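lol ok so funny story. i was supposed to be doing the assay writeup but got distracted and ended up predicting the structure for this chain instead. priorities right. anyway since i did it might as well share w the group, maybe its usefull for someone
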Amino acid sequence: MRIATIREIKDVARTLLVQEGPENVTIRAIAREMGMTAPAVYRYFSSRDALILQLRVDIFAEMARYMRGVIGQLPEGEPGRRLIGGARALRVWAIKHPHEFGLILGPWAPGLGREETKPERTMGWVFGSVFSDLVSDLWRVRGFPAPEEDELEPALARQLGALSEDQGVDMPPGAIAVMLRCWARLYGVISMEALGHMSFGLSEGKCFFEFELRDLCAMLDITEFYDEAA
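and the output, tada:
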């Protein structure tokens, strides 16, 4: 019963997130929807932040599962095609779930469960590892243009080396820098569309996303897979 109640609390919280926005995901509102008292809900989650944090954990994992499901339908020996498919899958999920995407990767409001701590970075890497694995596979199978370590600023090279050690990213610092550059561009264009910031100039964002994706394919030297993966 406890597990079922926790699941119901999180389901109600997510419904409130989608229908009314993150600021309205409160213990009192959840209790009202469930016919419980607020103190009763606190028996399952010690605070609103604890509830939101768990909601974010679940959403990160859900997004990662969706991407891995799409990628898993593509041939294992073709990392270029899988990377393109993964990028498109991320956009599809974000467009279908803009409120959830905003909660985990969008602009952040204070007091909504986010902390710059190791657990926060760990749950983000549940999703981040999907993209990292795709790029690592590409590097291992065929490589792509990347700067040498001595071409990077020393401070940046140290940070990239630490990332490699901490998360087991099997690429040299220059290749990791390219990976992060690609991620930043994908994240930026998807966020702008999913969160409604592209509407000032474009009626829909898919064409611009594909414009950017094709450029990233050129950066990674996998343009030959672009049209085939469409």
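The chain has eleven helices and no strands. The first helix runs from residue 2 to 20.
back to the writeup now i swear
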